[in-house]
Design brief:
The chain is of the alpha+beta class. The protein contains 4 helices and 8 strands; from the N terminus they run E-H-H-E-E-E-E-E-E-H-E-H. It has a 4-stranded antiparallel β-sheet with strand order 1-2-3-4, covered by helices on one side. Strands 7-6-5-8 form a 4-stranded mixed β-sheet, covered by helices on one side.
Length: 163
Amino acid sequence: MDNEANVPQGVARSISWEAPEHHHIEKGNDWFFALAIIVVAIVVVALLLDNVLFALLLGLAGGALGVSAAKKPNIIPYSISVRGIKIEDRQYPFPSLEAYHLDEDHFAGPQLLIKSKERFMPLLVMPIPTDHIDDIEDILKEKLEEEELTEPFLMKLLEIFGF
């Protein structure tokens, strides 16, 4: 049976948009200076405890964190159709997905949360444009269950710190 036959007349068959891969907060010199102070302090503690390898690892991790925080997010193409969801070049057919939730009150703008059956990526989070919310919901309610989904605590914590 063709999945497209289940879509009511008047409902969009496909919606595409582009958005940054994550909400970016511009960080000033003070933020990077604070990061450097924290990393240097932790590295000194590790050296005082005679753990040179751990100190090196912490220094590298701090440097990587600084580089990652300074990087601007890439613009990612998103698409939702009657066949599934496409994020960049990766297709997620509806049978591999379980539920969805539209979070219109997120501080960074509306976002779509999709619960996946995949073990290592159980939650897909996509920023969505406000003018496509109704069209997206029309497609998804025919294919997936609506369920109250929230971002993991660690994601919210990273957003608070500007990542």
